[in-house]
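User: I'm putting together a small comparison set for a docking exercise, and I want a reference complex before I start. The sequence is below, and the ligand is zinc ion. Could you produce the 3D structure with the ligand included, as structure tokens?
Assistant: Of course. I'll restate your input first, then give the structure tokens for the complex.
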Amino acid sequence: MPYLEVTFNLPIRNTYTYTTPNPVPVGCRVKTILGRRKLTGWVVGHPGGPPEGVDTNKIRAIEGQVDIEPLFGSSLLELAHWLAELTMCSPGEALSSMLPGGKRESRDLTESVDGDEDYAVDELTGDQQAALDSIGNLSSGWFYLYGITGSGKTEVFLRAAEAALSEGRDVIYLVPEIALSHHLVEGLKNRFSGLVAVIHSGLTPSRRLAEWRRIQSGEARFVLGARSAVFAPLRNPGLIIIDEEHEGSYKSGASPRYHARQVAMHRCRENGARLLMGSATPSVEAWHMMSAGGLQRLELSGRPAGGAMPTVSIVDLKKEKALLSGELVRSMARVLGEGRQVLLFLNRRGFSYRYSCRSCGEELHCRYCSVPLTYHKSTNTMICHYCGYRSAPPSSCPECGSMEMLAAGFGTERVEEDVSRLFPEKRVVRLDTDAVRRRVVLETTLREFRNGKIDILLGTQMVAKGLNAPGVKLAGVLSADTSLNLPDFRAAERTFALIVQVAGRSGRFVPDGEVIIQTFRPDAPAIRMAAENRIGEFYDYEIEQRRLLDFPPFSRLFRVVIRGKDEKKVFRTADQLASSLANRGKHWKLMGPAECPIGRISGQYRRHIILRSNGFDHTHAALGEALNRIPPVYGVRIEVDIDPVSLL
Ligand code: ADP
Ligand code: ZN
Ligand code: ZN
């Protein structure tokens, strides 16, 4: 009987040997029993016999074959091994993340709305044409389309895709979040019809598999999707596009913790393909690479649809009594009076995010996480945004018994209430994950806003991303500080990007856009430079800060999180790991172990160790060895995150 080498979607690095009555190709899934569990695994090899020293009689037969045709060909299997090695996960975890789905139950969210207006582009601007020419001049390489908001990057991406397809090569187009890209999906389907496959998390496992097969067969040659679409099984990848390159969602938050940009770079190198990234607010790494070489910079500077950069003013919240400042309310009234639209951005869901006692100051925290609970008025509950814990708002202080509990700090729900009261005759819509339970609601809202049927749109991240609505005259950032105050070295970079992006939603078609940025820290460089549109200056400043602190892009970070319910075990494991990495060479600096900024989530204590490395391969190898030496501790999980985007 032939033997199969099988890997599982488990954090176990070694593979297992099974026998099979029929030959099963590498890249297929098989049903097996591992220990006492029924598990589906991936066939990754055909060993000639059982591993050395293992009794042939002890080797189990598989329970069944899942796929007839392999889901992964040799180049994707190689990619999986590269990914597993790089991110320190098992090959099975890598393969499972490349073809996601089936892990969690998913609903089919593909209900669709149509009737979108389209803005056809007849003639390219000089900048756009020059960018395309540069891309066309080289058959491979890395390009960065740096263009201000509204400068027409999408059109360049689409034309570059057309060119690649006509050269007989296949295209991947990555977007941060497919749910926010409905407009683009419709446009693509019009332009590339049957060649397009859209991969997103709303697909049922069977639909996803069907799309996968369409791509494998060569029927679909243009894949649009979020992060994991970077693994699409195209036959001849020739162009990978990363739209809004700076977005954090390109980094996976679960094992394997990869960055789509990193995978795209690797795939392009392996396939002699072009990589084309773009943003109005490149990541600091990308900006640095553009000046250091290795990444060819292409620039778009105007707004071809007739807009211009908006005028921006900063409001100091220290001088205001409410989150809707006098200046903001006056501007809103004026703009709405002209029949134009307003966009408001606030990075906090819920009604209020602090609930504290007036007498003793006690603040209500989640029982399982070290974060405050958020009050949601519509459901009259206190909710933890990290673990989902819910409780009724207390009628008295749990600490001192005082009846005077005070809700403070504004969330979107609260602002919606205030705005509706101030402008009762205007149509106000709130867009956040609480308001949008169904994809179709999101699509409808975005379309109605584009078509001018909503006067004021208020929301979280969702409204900051790529919204292209002609009627927006005023964009307001209600509190620029929320992200700036996070204990994370990327806080400034993120705040800067957010402000520039939100501001970029106004004045896209008419050159009279206005932006108001409210903040308690009007002098913070990230806020001031974003407001004054001093883009290059901000990057110079931020890169200098990183140089002084020896943070990325001048070093690379390896973060290890140790978590578990038993605090002592967590401490002990973290200390053990740290001591085996301390003072062991010149290639890295050890920071920690320390409590993570969010010290507890879902009842688990969290500590982390950070290695700041100046020799990636050495550090990678040493960390791998150190982790192998640590004996497994029951109830303690160790997670490795290389090049983390968040340190919370
Ligand atoms: P970005 O992604 O750079 O923020 P978009 O790609 O959304 O900008 O383009 C902004 C608007 O400009 C869109 O409505 C688009 O149709 C329009 N546009 C793009 N290129 C041209 C062009 N060459 N002539 C006229 N309008 C254009
Ligand atoms: Zn109290
Ligand atoms: Zn919680």
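The two ends are 51 Å apart (CA to CA). The chain has four domains: 3-98, 126-300, 311-350+411-547, 556-642.
User: Thanks, that's exactly what I needed.
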